Amino acid sequence: MKLKLPLMALVAAFGFATNAQVSKNENAARKWITDHSKELGIKDYHTFKLNFVKKSLAGETLRFQQMINNVPVYHSEIVVHFNQNDKLSFTSESFDAAAKNITTTPSLSTDAALTASKESLKLNVSYTVDEKELIVAEINDQTKLVYRIVTNPANGKASWEVLVDAQTGTVLSTKDVAIYHRHEKNSIEQPKKTNSIVSMAPFAFVTGTAMVYLSDPLSAAHVAYGATGYVDGNDANTTQLAAARTAVTLPEIDLTAGIYKLKSSYVQIGDFETPNKGLFTRATSDFNFTRDNDGFEAVNVFYQLDKSLRYINETLGIVCKPSLNSGVLLYDPSGLDGDDNSHYVPSTERIAFGEGCVDDAEDADVIWHEFGHGVHDWLTNGSTSPYIGEGNGDYWAQSYSRSLNQWTSSDAAYNYMFSWDGHNTCWDGRTTNYAALYPGGLVGLQGGAAHTDGQIWATVLMKIWDAIGREKTDKMFLEGLVLTNSSSNQQNSARALRQAAIDMRYSCADVRTITQKFTAAGYTMPALLVVSAPETETVTVDAEGNYILGDFTSETIVYSPNCDVPAVQSPPPGTVFRAGTYVITMTSGTASDTFTLVVEPALGLNDNARANDIVVYPNPAVNEITIKGNLDTTDSISIYNMLGQKVIEKAIDSKEQKVDVSKLQSGVYTINFNNSKFSYKFVKN
């Protein structure tokens, strides 16, 4: 968990701390925490700081970090989520009710703690310390003040988290917190290597070209491992493996002083783990390699990671980037000292790929899986859960590879995870057609079982994917992850994902399918009776100053088991309103939801506008209108059609403002001056 928290003053009500971020929903969220303080077990010395706010397609999520005497409690938070209408719709928590009110002034200095950590690891390789913080943690049922120190060896063999008692200097625990696509134990003793520094110079982007595996060579050729020419052969190139490549365009690569480098707005190559092989720069924009050249793995990873980030941020419209490295994802295509594994390192938010057996960087499943760990980390501000983490990575990889339509549902490889890297003489790989159900099929978290249990989670998500499609399932997956915390199990996560689908106003049929798939996999889902009213509606009175309320039941979604329950509107259609703001209630059985109806005054230039000597021309308009006069340059305008739908919003930055209306349909439109509170009507031909 990233706990980048400055000290703050305390306030009275349940010791809530002052704001780290701002949200209009904070008071409502804090009220929920107060109202549920008894059942949560909140003590008067437990304080909470709003340390992360994320607004996205499903609404706004607030994360409250538990504090004791201004020190964060490790992996302890309360998550409160509001839908797009600012209605509280979901909560989750990893709150530590047992945390005691201990002294939080350390006897040990930070430097002494760093020394204790270094001595406990006995590293004989170069390394960096990428996190060091003072936290409160539960150790063997005792509340302790500890230093948490994360050390990353340059060989990439591990990411060591060491907890040091801040009063005695005793090392309390040491564990590897890197996240791998395969389970593997690590040793501390490693041969000495050197580390390279990654440059973050300003970008000057051009397009490039490359030859890559869209997924992997076996899927491209529709063959199994071991077919003629389709074996690793110690990284040897074959005619078949070369033919499995595809020519692609790289949307952005860096061009500086005539040198082309694998950097984009989203991704940048690094050389931060051994073996150190360089950055594979080119004199041309064409990164064309065969697999026997290490440059192939470098560009293959670059293409896949860049593609995944563009898909999330640009296609799906969900902001998701690393919080470190200026929001650019750093990767090393040849890391982990050459081991047959790959990992995401939360403390640095970097990804590295091993080279044992089949190079991991040649299999898109491995690349997208490790990237999935990063997505989980970034969307939750570091509150990743081991109960769903491996399944998340497998789902994200399978969602992409299946979208390529290289296998049919009758093929065994249709469900393969790591089709080239695994399911061969190297290792068995995994599947998204796992037969075990939740919770009876769980085997636990130890000894690699998290990877095994993750197949239950990935399998049910892919069944939903097959039923409602990639984009809907991907959006539900990403938006649902935002609602989870570090202790969220598969059960709670299933509920979070379904709630995200509801808050994004998926159809009742889609949500029913989602519910059925989760239920069939063994998850217990809450009874489905939810009303989702439309968002705020803005309308205008008629020539007599009246607005006759329309029927909004068709715009209201009622989520029920059979999708056959209607909504009732109050006040009913036909009610007459004057200008003003009203609350409309949509009800179905015991469930209800409301939306705001804004009834605006009659159209036309009002007295305020005349007083300010503002004109709009030409009127009627075809391509562009000009708003000229004594305009307030701190104001903004919103243009609405006759249905009250906002079609244009624009800031006013001059006394003669031009607005492009060429894309508007013919009709009458209203210009609302948002701060000055007057309006003007024009006609678009």
From TrEMBL:
Keyword terms, alphabetized: Hydrolase, Metal-binding, Metalloprotease, Protease, Signal, Zinc
Instruction: Describe the location of the PepSY domain by residue ranges.
Output: 129-174
**Range of residues in the leader sequence:** 1-20
Spans through the membrane = none
* Pfam families for the chain: FTP (PF07504), PepSY (PF03413), Por_Secre_tail (PF18962)
Q: Any idea which GO molecular function terms this record carries? A: metal ion binding; metallopeptidase activity
Task: Please give the superkingdom of this protein's source.
Answer: Bacteria
Outline the extent of the Secretion system C-terminal sorting domain.
616-678
Domain FTP, by residue range, is 62-90
GO BP terms in the entry = proteolysis
What NCBIfam families does this protein map onto?
Answer: Por_Secre_tail
Protein name per UniProt: Por secretion system C-terminal sorting domain-containing protein
Where does this protein come from, organism-wise? Flavobacterium noncentrifugens
